[in-house]
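Consider the following input, taken from an annotated entry for DUF304 domain-containing protein (Faecalibacterium hominis).
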Amino acid sequence: MTEWELRRTALIIPPRGRAVLCCWAAIPGLLAAPFVFWQNLSAGVVFCLLWAALVAVVYQRACSYAAALGAETLTVYSGIVFPLRRAVRRRAVTGLFRLRTPLLRLAGVSVVVITAPGTRLILPAVPAEQAAALTHALAEEIR
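Applying the prediction step yields:
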């Protein structure tokens, strides 16, 4: 994928990427649930319902997440009730990091961390081909 093709498309989280994010959000709750159930059955049920609501919020937030690469900026849009827009100038990017765990590799996605003065953007579960093109395009600005 070239930089021109990347500029014409928005980076969105695919369904497999959303599933990975929901698994990451569910694992701490699954590990803590036996200890809560050990204390009290009703507390365990309430804990599981609250944790399921948290995972549902993570899923909805992942559905609203999009990033767009422009000629001068990288803009990230997220949020449903309170939409956020964050823009980072491409020339201000000071560091890039692309993370691929075995679960991310299986889903065909990557996590991209972009560092700029005063901010750190985390682009979760971006398709691997688009993540590689994005890091290549932004790395050229660093040099």
